[in-house]
Amino acid sequence: MTADPPSDATSEESESLKKQYDTTPSTAESASTAASAVEPEDATDLLGGLDVETSEEIEIPERLVDQVIGQEHARDVVTKAAQQRRHVMMIGSPGTGKSMLSKAMAELLPKESVQDVLVYHNPEDGNRPKIRTVPAGKGKEIIEAHRAEARKSGQFRSFLVWGLIFLILGYSVLVSGQLLLGVLAAGIVFLLFRSTARRSSALVPNLVVTADPDSTAPFVDATGAHAGALLGDVRHDPYQSGGLETPSHDRVEPGAIHKANKGVLFVDEINTLDIRSQQHLLTAMQEREFPITGQSERSSGAMVKTDPVPTDFVLVAAGNLDAMEHMHPALRSRIKGNGYEVYMDDTTEDTPEMRRKYARFVAQEVAKDGRLPSFSRAAIAEVVLEAQRRAGRKGRLTLEFRNLGGLVRVAGDVARSEDATVTTRDHVLQAKRRARSIEQQIADDYIQRRRDYDVAMIEGSVVGRVNGLAVMGEDSGIVLPVMAEVTPSQGPGSVIATGKLQEIAKEAVQNVSAIVKKYSESSLHERDVHIQFVQAGQGGVDGDSASVTVATAVISALEGVGVDQSTAMTGSLSVRGDVLPVGGITHKIEAAAKAGMKRVIIPAANLQDVMVEDEYRELVEIVPVSHISEVLAYALDGSPDVDSPLGRLLEIADTVFDGVGRGGSPSPQ
């Protein structure tokens, strides 16, 4: 028999929280409920009052900076940095608009005179080519002039040489009768001609950097570039003598730092550049010029080094949080000393104005792709709903637009495959199912395999076994059972946990042991508590969201009281027994519903973050709790002894909302 629920005070607050959940706007329905379309007034509300029938009616700004959604702080910084030509470092999650802001910065840079860069042969030292900069567009004119002159000179020499060859052959046949000697002499003349022709070709310069004077400032994406692509290189020449070699200036290749002169150099995942490349990048930023040399010491290009080439660019470095750990400190100091550091937001406030911008985002993606049907109003509203859901927080919208844009494109592809003229809400629902992440597909397969092999338990009562909830990746929930066993100890009692726990998870287990020790007094000194995370996988367990699950399993094992297997739970636990909020709450609830659970216990503070799909909402009862005693009251079967640790814990449920027993513990944050 299930334990009695908490006191009236507890029940009243829980019911109040449940009512808040019931009034939360619904999220995207599944494909199975696709027939019931979003009501027109609901769609209008989700579009922030925007009255359009399709995405074609939504006006798209011309400037990239005006197309950026959210990230107001980053956009302001980029605008100021462009005006003053400052460097910028952007740190944040992938797909939050770093590259788009970088391209926008190139449009915002003050108009400057871009340059063409020419490399000339150095007659004094062929391995030291000369550099000349000219206004943009002039480089091609200079090259054509040199080539025309070289062609005229070559044609004249060819006429003379072939005339001389025919004269030699004629003389050897008609006069001397020495044909072999005549052929040999003609061959020598031909080789001499080829040698002089190559030397004359060295007079034609090599145009390594060219720019359009009428376009915006150059934007060069150097993400993942190796040393040669970033800093420039000199091609290897296998023919280095005998008149067959290619002049060194013709083998010079510019790097991204040279192509970005007077523009923007964008480097994502800046920490993946090797230290040597980062040092040279720093030099190019400081000196605003950098010579080109061969990057491989085994290449003939290693002997070549040009005069310094202009590198007056604005650097936009980007990366995730770990980028700062592996970034050259001097390079980061240079950016901070002459620029800005920006942290990109993951979510933005859910307001009518922002919803209108998300509708515009759909129109932007359709226009950018160029092959997708326009989206109906209901389809756009469904995308906005998905943005709410992916934010994972009440009143927020996700700013990870790359993944959201992927959903738009898949929905459009589905519509095209059906020869539809407009992408409907049903197409978006199908796209959500088809565009599942790898983690989601693994999680679904994981749940199915557990059912096939009877690993999952969703009925009955078992002592020391609790169905916990975890997240795989960023958007996939799984049911992760936790088992506990209490055995006599041959020495001092200890807590032994298995399942490849990471540091945070280990600390969470220690917090749980503190709670158990508090209410069990000295009973654990002579016992070992074994905790197992069943089938945790190769990655192990990270985070503290299993704290509530572990505590319930240990207390159940200590008291010999069974746990309702149709109940799943998640939540962090303080050392005083408070249930604190965790991440991924929506995905965890949906995982419990897929697994066949009937009840999910979650932290009360997370109730506002629940954005469960309608197909799962009616399958599970969501129970918000604030203290471990409430968790036990809902999850355990049977009635423990009054003087037992569990009995003392359950007594707290009668006073938890009356201010007694909490001892001034902080509320869940």
UniProtKB/TrEMBL annotation:
Residues 1-43 are annotated as: Disordered. It comes from the Archaea. It holds the Pfam family Mg_chelatase. This is Archaeal Lon protease. Keywords: ATP-binding, Cell membrane, Hydrolase, Membrane, Nucleotide-binding, Protease, Serine protease, Transmembrane, Transmembrane helix. Residues 460-638 form the Lon proteolytic domain. Homohexamer. Organized in a ring with a central cavity. Residues 191-340 form the Sigma-54 factor interaction domain. It is found in: Cell membrane. One of its GO terms (molecular function) is ATP-dependent peptidase activity. ATP-dependent serine protease that mediates the selective degradation of mutant and abnormal proteins as well as certain short-lived regulatory proteins. Degrades polypeptides processively. Gene3D superfamilies: 1.10.8.60, 3.30.230.10, P-loop containing nucleotide triphosphate hydrolases (3.40.50.300). One of its GO terms (biological process) is regulation of DNA-templated transcription. Signal peptide: none annotated. Residues 23-37 have a biased composition (Low complexity).
